[in-house]
Amino acid sequence: MIIQKNNGKVVAPQATMKEKFKMVAKTMVSLEEVLADELRELGAENVTVGARAVEFEGDMRLLYRANYCCRTALAILKPFAEFDADDDQQLYDQVYRIRWEKLLDIDATFMIDSTVSGEIFTHSYYAALKTKDAIVDRFRRNFGKRPSIDTEQPDYKINLHIRDNHVTLLMNASGDSLHKRGYRQGVGIAPINEVLAAGLLKLAGWCSPQNSESSVQNFYDPMCGSGTMLIEAAMMANCIPAQYYRGNRFSFMRWKEFNLGEWKSVKAEEDRKIGSLDFEGEIWGNDIDERVIEQCERNLEYTKLHKDVMLHIGDFAEQDPPQGRTLIVTNPPYGERIKVEDLNALYTQLGDTFKQRYGEQCDVWLITSDFEAMKHIGLRPSAKIPVQNGALDCRFLHFQLYQGSKKAKYQQED
Ligand SMILES: C[S@@+](CC[C@H](N)C(=O)[O-])C[C@H]1O[C@@H](n2cnc3c(N)ncnc32)[C@H](O)[C@@H]1O
Predict the structure, then answer these.
(1) Given the DSSP bridges, would you call strands 218-221 and 156-163 parallel, antiparallel or unpaired?
(2) In the structure, which protein residues have their CB atom closer than 6 angstroms to any atom of ligand 1?
(3) 197 FRET partner, CA 20 to 30 A, in 100, 250, 286, 332?
């Protein structure tokens, strides 16, 4: 264990490569179970699912691997100190006792992200300020110098978590959120978050080990925009690690205990798996807007996935229907960021296209925050999973298409 308590004093020793310790992976609503599965596949032990977080154990190689490979994690955190504090002074004193010089470079920058709950600490900003004061005071008194604060691009992101009087300090190993995969060339009109896109694909069963036939399944996004679903789907089908395009932008690389050789070995192990799934399906996307298709092309070219993904421009209702066993996961406009003249009519057209043109070989999933427009699809969803797209409360809907007695099966719920 990395956390030690000595009569209430907290020390923060560094982990050796083989030592196992607790970690926390942060994620989004409804993606906790898929993230737990990802972590187990990577070798995590004692995996416990929480709210928008998964706790697990493993060694430093797993910390590197989880950062590099987890598609549905926003950040990997490593707890390093834990104690009780009944007021601000106790918080300050306990933080002051931590051997920060073992953790932070004096010339580096840091920031504190805080969450508080309970009646003792009620202002997260104030708790973060007290913690920062204790850190810089310790450095100043012992070394006459202190690391600086940078809230934009800090070298170290420290997470302060207080529930009632219980304080946990965690080091964010990822740095920038892991949804920043590094493949986006310019900002789209309303791109879906990459972690959410990957999570939706996993919820829909794309490339799932349980789905043994998935290697011959096709993938289609009829309203693909800048292509986030397509790229995440193609990366999964080709076993390309989630952060393959991110470069060396991980906070753990700034840690004193960072081991470049071990990182390179973990990365090489994961990169060797690229192409190992023998994926034989087709992946293609469509959008009515030529400009977003150009952007999608740029993203695909950057990832070198342009030969794996076909693109069309036009109204989805006029495109050739998918052939063969096809998974469709799409993110239509919600009317929030993209204004559509008649959103209800668009959703009616979507439902009609699924019913009349797509066969029972198609498995359709759709994310939306517009609960009114959703009713206009005119199909009964077999699953409605609550998800969050930025600040928007959304549902991820599953429609199973059947041939034959469509009327009865497609009756809309009230
Ligand atoms: C929310 S955006 C999709 C964003 C995409 N998931 C991404 O990550 O960039 C919805 C897309 O639907 C497209 N769209 C709207 N009406 C359409 C139609 N009738 N046929 C095809 N695409 C349409 C818009 O041009 C827009 O790019």
Answers:
(1) unpaired
(2) 188, 190-192, 223, 225-226, 228-229, 286-289, 292, 315-316, 331-333, 338, 346
(3) 250
At 157-169, the pLDDT tens digits run 999 999 999 999 9
- Going by their DSSP bridges, the two strands 109-117 and 148-149 should be labelled as parallel
**C-alpha closest to that of 62 among 47, 52, 81, 82:** 47
**Positions in the chain short of pLDDT 70:** 1-15, 187-188, 209-216, 336-341, 403-414
Give the chain's domains with CATH numbers. Answer: 4-172 (3.30.2130.30), 194-240+275-409 (3.40.50.150)
The model's pLDDT over 300-354, given as tens digits with 9 standing for 90+, comes to 999 999 999 999 999 999 999 999 999 999 999 987 655 566 899 999 999 999 9
Instruction: Output the residue whose Cα is nearest ligand 1's atom 27.
Output: 225
**pTM value surpassing 0.85:** yes
From 288, 290, 341, the mutation candidate for ligand 1 (largest count of ligand atoms within 8 A of CB) is: 288
Report the nearest atom of ligand 1 relative to the CA of 349: 19
**Residues in contact with 15: Cβ distance below 8 Å, sequence separation at least 6, in sequence order:** 2, 21, 59, 60, 257
- What gap in Å lies between CA 400 and CA 379, rounded to an integer? 9
